[in-house]
Design goal:
It is a single chain. With 71 residues, the protein is α+β, with helices and mostly antiparallel strands. Helix content is 41%, strand content 23%. The protein is built from 3 helices and 3 strands. Strands 1-3-2 form a 3-stranded antiparallel β-sheet. The longest helix has 13 residues. The protein is globular, with a radius of gyration of 12 Å.
């Protein structure tokens, strides 16, 4: 199973968050990137950032520590 952490339409922020999670030893997944690309990046369909379920707590902690977690 996977856990979706957030939905975001800013590709720069998504890249940063993916790098942050990877640097923390996690395996982030980017969902909905094909739909987002097809609609022309007009932000109608944000992409979802997810991690494997067993990494969700660590991912949330990393994002919180970096000031990137939005409750």
């Amino acid at each position: 199973m996977i856990r979706v952490l957030l939905a975001e339409s800013d590709p720069v922020r998504l890249g940063f968050l993916q790098a942050l999670l990877r640097d923390g030893g996690l395996r982030p997944l980017l969902l909905d990137s094909h739909v987002s690309a097809v609609e022309g990046r007009i932000s109608a369909f944000p992409q979802r950032l997810a991690v494997p379920e067993e990494q969700a707590r660590a991912a949330e902690a990393l994002l919180r520590e970096a000031g990137e977690w939005r409750d």
